[in-house]
Amino acid sequence: MTPPKNKPKYDTKRAWGEARALMWAHRRSVGIGLVLMLISRASGFVLPYSTKMVLDEVLPSRDVRLLGWIALAGLGATLVQALTGFALSQVVSVAAQQAIAKLREEVQGHLIRLPVRYFDSTKSGVLVSRVMTDPEGIRNLIGTGLIQLTGGILSALGAFGVLLYLNWRMTLAAVVPLVAFSAGMSIAFKRLRPIFRERSVIQSEVTGRLTETLGGIRLIKVYTAEEREKAVFGEGVQRLFRNIAKTITGTSLTGTLGFAVVGVIGVITMYQGGADVIAGRMTLGSLITFVIFIAMVTAPLVQVASIGTQITEAFAGLDRIRELRDMATEDQEDASKQDVPSVVGRVEFDDVSFEYEPGVPVLQHVSFVAPAGTTTALVGSSGSGKSTLISLIMAFAQPQQGRILVDGTAVSDLKLRDYRRHLGVVMQDNFLFDGTVKDNIAFTKPGATDEEVMAVAKIANAHDFIMGFPQQYDTIVGERGVKLSGGQRQRVAIARAILADPRVLILDEATSSLDSESEHLIQEGLRRLRAGRTTFVIAHRLSTITSADQILVLEKGQIVERGSHQELLALGGRYRDLYNRQYQLEQDQFINPGEEIAATG
Known about the structure:
By secondary structure, this protein is an alpha/beta fold. The chain folds into two domains: 13-326, ABC transporter transmembrane region fold, CATH 1.20.1560.10; 347-597, Rossmann fold. 64% of the residues lie in helices and 10% in strands. The protein has a six-stranded mixed β-sheet with strand order 6-7-8-3-9-10, with helices on both faces. A hairpin with a 2-residue loop joins β1 (347-357) and β2 (360-370).
């Protein structure tokens, strides 16, 4: 987990534009909040000004009746202030949470439509942070933060007018430290914003590492790597701590500056006000009222330190969300592409070359045709390019050279959402959601009936073991299907693919987690499934692909042999070598232990 090297650019104008758009979207709640805030702040003026009337008019004249009216006015204003304050909090807090929920939905909706290459290069914890954490800050734009800031400024302006009326000389003297304080706040917030942004990056990296650690807990325990993971996570946590310490220092300095300003203004008020009262230029009631109203000016400005920090943090979150939302989604890339109402299933690779990193080829000049309804098997050593070829068929990436055509049209010219509706996939790493067995099988066909689910489960040889569970098809499989064995997860995934009824079927090590008996039982089902569909098979057991229409042997990203099983055996090349070695290995694995002992005895 290393800090980013490139310093991002901050578009403050665009950030404010986004803030205005958010507030406009919730203008009703924000408008009600502003009205309530104005009523609350206006009510707050009654009690301080009543002090002047009591000292300068009631006490000298001993007018008890006027005193009663002033007391009632103060009580009424206090009640209004309390009620509007409560209503304000309710209205804007709900609006803020609605905005956060909507933004999370929008960010998640945009995120899952990004190309697969983005997910290949970004940790899942970082993505979770983008969706769940970054939108949190906008509560300070739509919620009480920005409204309190606005209310504080308006209150300060109103109180400033009263101060000018009471003693304009003393008011102007107090303005100087306030201007200095405002300038200091502007500089502080400008410097804090990149620190808050960096915090979001670090936090997402730390979250990402923690997610990986928890996901790989079994591997960590097997290799006793707890201390190593603790050290890696601890390093990230310390980076986060150092970042937070910087923001604490910055906000503490702004708070200290605020208190210093209040102290300076207090000294000015005490000295100048005392002198004016002694000289008869100001009454005692006016001086006390001035002190109260000067507090109403300085207090909101001091609060700006904390509220402004919250808004700065919100802008940092908007910066990161904007980066994500500026990325083109597959839907946006599809806008000018062809619809795919149906697929026959002819797939052709025309001189395709591909590399993940420049200068490191994974596929080189691959050309072949898979006629509609046929089965093409891919074999070769690890790293030969089999999975990459399958990934290109699924349009998870685009080749740097050549074309991949489906029914004569380049995949790059097809709308991916339309095209992928005709695909069925059983991957080597079968992912199951934390739900019921039925939900996972029906994932490819929402609303499938129980009969349909059971029918495909029987083809995949999954029905019997599912019925053995106490809850049968309503059994919860756990996160990533952890409550099922590897073979059970594999068969559920196969049933899921069968239910999709695809035109192009991809089996990437589809029987790798099955024992020989289970594999034998589903082979006939898979053969029936392949009928009429264009199928691509990657199999580590060559005995499972003998019925393929064509077999492509890949080595170092190139097709070195092609043909049927019998043709390749007769050729006596790389495929024959792989087949003989695997056949001997399987024979060694299935020797009867009793016979072996007798032979050695």
